[in-house]
Amino acid sequence: MVVRRSGPAWLRERPPRWPRREENFGSGPHRWEREREPFEDDALPELYPGWLVMEDLAQTGDATTTLRVLARYATIRVVLLSAAGSLRGSKLLVERRVAFEHLALLPPHDWERRALERVTGLCRESPSRDLVTGLVVAAESAAKRAQTMGAFALYRAGYELSCREAWWPEAAQAAHGIARLARLEEARYSVRLWQRRAGVLARRAARTADPPAS
Description:
This protein is an all-alpha fold. Residues 1-27 have low confidence and may be disordered. The N and C termini lie far apart (70 Å). Helix 4 runs antiparallel to helix 5 (129-144), helix 6 runs antiparallel to helix 7 and helix 7 runs antiparallel to helix 8. The chain contains eight helices and no strands.
């Protein structure tokens, strides 16, 4: 014998409960309710190309370190302006010479000086992938000196240039570097942001990689 159920017995005792967004992502403040971390997009808009590097001047009164920050600024300024197409011909040569003059004030066997000299020499009217690799090396050097904004500016320059040129392996490398920098600074929102970007870019690089030669 089949027993038929009818009436409210078929209704759920309680409606299904969907988890709120805060329950999935922690109890922290909303994105619009908290102060943005320096590594998030548009958190520190640059007043002029390379301005972010100069933020490290507030952390030191040492003359050598000041020269180092200024040399970074002179270098990244050439990188950003040449990549944007604002420096060509004689203007590019003049700006590169100015950057080399700043770098010459650093100790002759300084590892970061050599890295920045390589970056400056690679600044041309048509950028290359080697330029991004050089930016990542220079950024790592700044990070080891705990000069965070200079490191971030160099990483970000490499990231933006790589994304523009569709150089996905280099873009993933730069994004991963920013994620590590954010972790050192305990910027937890930025860590997740840049880890996610690095993962997306790494997968894109793998999909677009040249097939092995047969």
